[in-house]
Structures
1.
Amino acid sequence: MDSQEIKDTILAMGAKARMAAHDLAVLDSGQKNDILRAMANGLREQSAAILEANTKDIAAGEENGLTSAMLDRLRLDDARLEAIAVGIEEVADLPDPVGEVMDEWTRPNDICIQQVRVPIGVIGIIYESRPNVTSDAAVLCLKSGNATILRGGSEAIHSNKAIAHALQSGGQSAGLPDSAIQLIPFTDRESVSVMSGMDQWLDVIIPRGGKGLIETVVSLARMPVIKHYDGICHTYIDKDADVEMAVAIADDAKTHKPGVCNAMETLLVHNQIANDFLPKIATVFTEKGVEMRGDSKALEILGDAAVVASDEDWDTEYLDLIVAIKVVSGMKEAIDHINTHSSRHSECIVTADSNRAESFITRVDSACVFHNASTRFSDGGEFGFGAEIGISTDKLHARGPMALRELTSYQYRIRGNGQIRSLHATT
Amino acid sequence: MDSQEIKDTILAMGAKARMAAHDLAVLDSGQKNDILRAMANGLREQSAAILEANTKDIAAGEENGLTSAMLDRLRLDDARLEAIAVGIEEVADLPDPVGEVMDEWTRPNDICIQQVRVPIGVIGIIYESRPNVTSDAAVLCLKSGNATILRGGSEAIHSNKAIAHALQSGGQSAGLPDSAIQLIPFTDRESVSVMSGMDQWLDVIIPRGGKGLIETVVSLARMPVIKHYDGICHTYIDKDADVEMAVAIADDAKTHKPGVCNAMETLLVHNQIANDFLPKIATVFTEKGVEMRGDSKALEILGDAAVVASDEDWDTEYLDLIVAIKVVSGMKEAIDHINTHSSRHSECIVTADSNRAESFITRVDSACVFHNASTRFSDGGEFGFGAEIGISTDKLHARGPMALRELTSYQYRIRGNGQIRSLHATT
């Protein structure tokens, strides 16, 4: 395929998605939920074809030397496919954000103004190897009334095509508008730049993947980008912390699932509690094989149990059993450290003093700030959102766990009885 | 100044703005309002210096052949300066959006989650010739707890510097943090690209000006851009409209203030009411000197009173006493026309049938949709917001009239009593 064909194909998909978005915007919740359940059944009915396509991707992946972790992310089987189908049915059961009246008031001239949630329109999703994203992203967007254009990674192209086909044909049997869910059927790199440039058709673009992918989209995109960058999350143990609670929270934040964005990377400890707290958490960390990298004050207490932290450590998302530890002279130093080094994702203060907790919370410039609870709760499911499309590290539109509501925009609906500004202005 | 100096200067301003933003985020409403009132007084006290600076800009503008309209936009006098100062005091009197609890709930594991409005952080504003924007933008951003970096047009550079100085020195007497309001003291074109690239310091950038400026910022910016594009606004007269009301609304939308973005550009008329309605509105428009450009069906009714519309007319923001008129075969054609040609700003349906009005409202993909009221009410002041920074034609973050609330982000504040995910997960 040459450049012009790639461009023409994707632009045509954009125009069709816009038409589909207009149809989707007026579907009621019952219709959308019927479509979602039919999509889940479509996946089940076409499971043989999907697994066969997946076998091709796995074979190609093995040939191209993908790591076993990458192959595992790529691999589908009956259980994983059933989990995807059940996930769709769970989304069908969630409340529909579209149509929710966010605010409503009447002006002195009797004009009534409503602010109502509406779909965003057309959402572009660019993702890497996991084929389940094809379903997860399309399904959340559909529930919130949006059309999607999906561009998955080359490793999963056969699986993605088979999944998209199953969703489309299943959904269409229940009234899914044509072109509501479209997968770009090729994976040329150029497709990313074409998508990033077509702001006449895409209302927002969401890159799901590594920093390199996000950076590429950010530098090319003309439309808004919702970014899900790293989580360099901090836990700060204040001087008045309950030490047992502090150990439990720091342990959970670091070791419960170290490879995820809401895991702790840096532990900050008030110097008045460091002598009590640090040896206790060190015992836990040593037992669990966590490498500790401390500043000079931490090393005075931890001795040989820790190694020295470099400047780089304070800005590193380890995603591993490694933790950076710093002893601070007070809460202000902790806050300044966080506001300088954090990725603004999730932070925690452990303290028995709720005034100090409030002071910390209002001064820390991150999406989620926890008092006496593990940063591992920074998650759409744990927040009660039912499903999430990711954790936004942006500050505009969506911040923190991003679910159905964050996939909507709003519209002002203004009702009058003949008011004109030349006669009825209020300002 | 060479490129490197420009870049270094602006990046240094960015770093200082970030520090100031942290200080601003914890000011309470009383402190911010005191600062705002002191800023208003600063303007009054330094009025002589501001007017002297403005004289230089006017002289340079005359020399450079600015039109009289442009010179008028640039010109300040005692009355205009006092209006700016009063405007600041009005913003001080508005409610503070920061700290508002948007949502609050408790999870089954007793974790309490609050969603609280917080400032965005650092806002970059790039604008053209009007020097009052220096104050308006800085003041709205300050009230909402944000630091600003302002980059005004070269025509107004002396006025802008004098106004910024007055705001800063007035505000500092009441505790305005250093670098909370910064004006880039030069107007090299390069400053726009440096600002657009520094996403480490600017959380959002707002271009206020013509399409060319917005396009430039959109193509360069790495951070979110809030755009205020054209208003190609439509009024649709449905078959069951009250004709007298329809004439009044169409007249107001077109002629009350034709040079603004919420004025009507295209009038759509149901064919069952066209014979009754069009001659009546034509009488008004002819009397007021409005040029009518009709499609073939409109011309059949309007005869010589109108000229023929070209394809281009349906996509034009006249900002003038010109209107495009199309007779449609039904509401669906009106909606399709709007969703194809509108700039998604503001549209209106005039009808006595509220079911048809609801159908129109939910199908039209624009920020503001009016039933039986003029699109001229699409305005922050008329919505009761007190002040506006513009009308967003974006769908993410802020849509439609954009005021203090739209200059905020939010933060999740999560309070527990020792919950850890390995023991207390709810999903």
2.
Amino acid sequence: MSFTDILIKQVELSGRKVDILLRDKLIAEISPHIECENARIICGKNKAVLPPFYNMHNHAAMTLLRSYADDMELFTWLSKHIWPIEAKMTPEDIYWGTRLACLEMIKSGTVFFNDMYWHQLEAVKAADEMGMRACVGLMYLEGENGEMLEYNERNNAMVMAAYPGFSELITLTLAPHAIYTVGEKRLRSIAAMSAEKNLKVHIHVAETAQEVADCKKAHNGMTPVEYLDSVGLVNERMVAAHCVHMSDYDLDLMARNKAVIAHMPCSNMKLNSGSFRWKAAHDAGCIVTIGTDGCASNNNLSMIEEMKFAALAAKREADSPTAAPAEQVFRAATVNGAQAFNFNAGVVAAGKAADLMLVNLNDTRLTGNNLIADMVYSADSSCIDSVICNGRVLMQNGSVADEDVIVTEVRKCIRRLVE
Amino acid sequence: MSFTDILIKQVELSGRKVDILLRDKLIAEISPHIECENARIICGKNKAVLPPFYNMHNHAAMTLLRSYADDMELFTWLSKHIWPIEAKMTPEDIYWGTRLACLEMIKSGTVFFNDMYWHQLEAVKAADEMGMRACVGLMYLEGENGEMLEYNERNNAMVMAAYPGFSELITLTLAPHAIYTVGEKRLRSIAAMSAEKNLKVHIHVAETAQEVADCKKAHNGMTPVEYLDSVGLVNERMVAAHCVHMSDYDLDLMARNKAVIAHMPCSNMKLNSGSFRWKAAHDAGCIVTIGTDGCASNNNLSMIEEMKFAALAAKREADSPTAAPAEQVFRAATVNGAQAFNFNAGVVAAGKAADLMLVNLNDTRLTGNNLIADMVYSADSSCIDSVICNGRVLMQNGSVADEDVIVTEVRKCIRRLVE
């Protein structure tokens, strides 16, 4: 793919009008006026430029299960509805489900997702075709006797055989599902592999009160975070999804070791998992990022909506309307995620990767007195005009390539699955 | 204004394809195939028809204060920020602020709002021009000695002089602000006037724990609902906004008397007012409806977003993921509100008022397995294609008349106000 220069003309950046030149996948220059021959021009009139979103926890192809089973107890939901239909999913389903997820994420301003699902090579293909950054997880799930599940083993072998031949925007994590589905021995070997290969470890942590109670019972009173620390996983390579039920000591452990928390407020509220301690986590110095979780428990992939839920749920949890101010929430959804994955991105500044979004200042939702507060508390996906990832325009004027094809193919997949 | 027949061709209604004929402001016929000469045709391909939303509590012109003061304690927010800027608002500000509110509501599928603000005749004019149903409140606010505030008295006189000359879609409520701003004597006279003139009474009730504590102290241990019942206001004409801090007895009183609860989850969470007891209210048989509150405490007017917050907050509050199922929440946002104001609307059926919206089934957010669950948990305003109110098309293909003019004028008003 060839990347021509892109010149965004007279767009609003932090309240002033600027020209922005994108060259070689980077933000090359930001000035009041830039001239550049042969650049593709994007008109910035009535638009503002912002960093885009980094979705830190997703099961992308679960778009196929949107609104398939709602308003249920967690175990009924999983065992009677989600697992049986997941067992029927083919690689093709995963491909189309992930393309739909990418489409939906791009339309709501997201350029990266941290994925944990199966048939990962299909997700790699889908993300690559859609032009997004992605991280797919090498999944670990054990059967009752501590053996790797057969399909899981086979899948991982395929992913390892293909990696690192992925596109430059797609990387790999080690993704042990959770402490209750992967045993101590394997967790220790994953910790060693993570250190050796410098790979992130993506894992569900302390999502429910039950998980914490079971962990304490099984592991000498240790919380899930203490237990994970004991096997060598709480470090700067850890991306811990959920972290709902955390002690002060857990938060301190995460902060001291620079482990990353991915917070999913909609999923936590919808499944009634509990309330993430946003303010306590920030007071402890934790790195807090935001994700959407999969569509079966959300039921969409909008980081904009997730920011509002994060901010409002945090106020209730901390019993204070001053908790989770808009700027802090916006950083969690943007630059914190980019930094957690070591992208040179998440801020609109010269020298950074050319990841950005343009928002439409003529949208009623963005007529407020503070653009960041408008984005967190007022905006929805209709405010997003254009999305650029690593110098490539993924959406312009609200339009993404192949939208109708993707929706049509996904509807076919869903019809076959739910038959 | 003349109303021609409208024929919506081959639109999805509850899973089957139908034609819908709108005539004389009513849904005249719904059949698999309808022929009608001279009707304006709306293509229903890849669209579904649903009842639109009825926003049961709003301070519409507060669109001017969006993102002006966020993340603050309630009293600081009101006294240092909201009241001083409201004091500067001119009738023209209210007119444009309300037009923007109408634009934003139409774009997110809303056809009615129950308003409580000042310079009401400007709101009447704005709603009328935008083609929406509205109810404006005759406001009552007392000074420290129980006298009506002067501007309030003057305003009410103007509204009374103009009423009932409003358009057929716009009516009046009596709107005593709250029990802590209007004394017992006046509340009793409002109750009498409501009975005599058959007017609804729109009032803030039990929004904060402080209000309940103060009420008990001042009124022999009575809760706000008990106190309002003692002055004759808890009846089928009451629309009680918030009702956050309610005892079982309060809920029972509301249910037995067919009083209407307007629930505003975003505002309650953002200001940390408390958690509405959704499940308990439904178990008690209360009439529960949904509103957005004003933009200063939300910060938008999307009933779609409000439904998701209502459903998810209810699950947390009731400590159960089965609380507030999608169908129940959708009814609260649609037919419950329409019925509460005695509109012959809120359901897509022959003989009902022609209030409806079309949603775009090609939107990724609506590709799920249940359209109502998709609307509650997944949709945002970008899914709304067309909105029809009382047989008049207010939006078609996502486009509303005068959008840019309204945004431009509102920006001018805001600049002047915040200077």
